[in-house]
């Protein structure tokens, strides 16, 4: 094996696997994990951090990360990983533990549960939600519009939407404290994903810091451990987080933070902005080819 194949990892990023939003289902997730286990070196995030410093990351190293903290992290994903002896890393948006859901679920539920057939006066127009397809489009549009708002503005906008659609959005789809502790006990890594999932650059520095601290404290009290890992909401460097946020993490004892920027992790990578890459193909062969190509492309660009 050429030297360039070594000391390089791809960190993959997953979310919910059993939600009716067109995303990944349980079978697809299981097939992908079995495939990775057979053809790649699946290691844990702490192992990756350790092996990179010793310069002995095995070829085709991959790390599994799961963002947000939905209940299926416990009931579906952890059992599959456990069965395959994979140690994943879970990044949790802690407000979900008390509320049972996140901001985007409130939008989804409002649109899908309302008896109204039009959203009146939101995003400066009336939008029909009479059909399944229209509800899907309305959700995508509102999700994107609200995502880049500050927390205060987002909360007001969602409250207004709920009031216009006159609907109960409450739900219980999130991890409980006990389930987070159980994931930890299964040997998985628990990390912070902020408290309310803000785009950090939309908040002032003090509010951004509080978002990180609050989530870290809650997770430390649940796991009885220091929380040293973090994943940025949305995760694009420059747009969604910047160097100020990296400094905040350092002062809080967080040694490793994951972005969503494209790339492989190498000894040249910034450990506070580790890239992640996840082939999107449902077809397992294409998934594998794209992942191999990703390792190779990185080499071709000279990031050995
Ligand atoms: Zn997230």
What's the SSE blueprint?
Layout (H helix, E strand, L loop, with lengths): L7 E7 L11 H14 L1 E3 L1 H9 L7 E8 L3 H12 L5 E4 L2 H5 L3 H11 L4 E5 L2 E4 L3 H16 L3 H15 L11 H9 L3 E4 L12 H19 L5 E3 L11 H9 L4 E3 L6 E2 L17 H17 L4
Parallel strand pairs: 1-3, 2-3, 3-4, 4-7, 8-9
Antiparallel strand pairs: 1-10, 5-6
Helix pairs in contact: 1-3, 5-6, 5-7, 9-10
Protein described:
The chain is α/β, with parallel strands linked by helices and 304 residues long. The protein folds into 2 domains: 3-97 and 174-300, TIM Barrel; 101-165. It has 11 helices and 10 strands. Helix 1 packs parallel to helix 3 (72-83). The longest helix is centred in the last third of the chain and has 19 residues, at 205-223. The model has no long low-confidence stretch (mean pLDDT 94). It binds zinc ion (ZN). Zinc ion (ZN) is lined by residues 67-68, 193, 197, 233.
Summarize this entry quickly.
With 304 residues, the protein is α/β, with parallel strands linked by helices. It is built from eleven helices and ten strands.
Descriptors:
binds zinc ion, alpha/beta, TIM Barrel, two-stranded antiparallel sheet, six-stranded mixed sheet, 304 residues, single chain, 2 domains
- Tally of separate helices: 11
Largest sheet: 6 strands, mixed
Number of strands: 10
Unique bound compounds: zinc ion
Give the ordered list of helices and strands: EHEHEHEHHEEHHHEHEHEEH
Number of domains: 2
């Amino acid at each position: 094996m050429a030297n360039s194949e070594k000391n390089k990892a791809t960190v993959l990023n997953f979310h919910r696997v059993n939600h009716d939003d067109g995303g990944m289902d349980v079978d697809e997730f299981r097939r992908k994990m079995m495939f990775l286990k057979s053809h790649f070196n699946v290691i844990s995030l702490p192992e990756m951090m350790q092996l990179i410093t010793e310069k002995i990351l095995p070829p085709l190293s991959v790390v599994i990360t799961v963002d947000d903290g939905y209940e299926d992290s416990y009931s579906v994903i952890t059992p599959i990983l456990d069965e395959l002896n994979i140690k994943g890393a879970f990044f949790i948006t802690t407000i979900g533990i008390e509320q049972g859901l996140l901001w985007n679920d409130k939008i989804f539920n409002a649109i899908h549960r309302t008896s109204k057939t039009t959203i009146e006066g939101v995003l400066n127009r009336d939008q029909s939600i009479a059909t399944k397809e229209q509800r899907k489009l309305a959700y995508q549009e509102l999700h994107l519009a609200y995502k880049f708002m500050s927390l205060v503005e987002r909360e007001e906008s969602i409250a207004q939407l709920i009031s216009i659609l006159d609907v109960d959005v409450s739900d219980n789809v999130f991890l409980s404290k006990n389930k987070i502790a159980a994931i930890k006990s299964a040997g998985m890594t628990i990390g912070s994903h902020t408290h309310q999932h803000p785009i950090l650059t939309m908040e002032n520095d003090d509010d951004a810091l509080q978002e990180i601290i609050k989530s870290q404290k809650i997770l430390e009290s649940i796991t009885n451990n220091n929380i040293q890992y973090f994943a940025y909401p949305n995760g694009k460097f420059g747009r969604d987080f910047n160097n100020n946020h990296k400094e905040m993490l350092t002062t809080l004892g967080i040694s490793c933070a994951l972005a969503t920027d494209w790339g492989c992790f190498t000894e040249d990578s910034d450990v506070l902005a580790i890239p992640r890459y996840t082939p999107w193909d449902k077809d397992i062969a294409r998934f594998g080819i794209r992942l191999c190509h990703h390792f190779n492309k990185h080499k071709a660009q000279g990031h050995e």
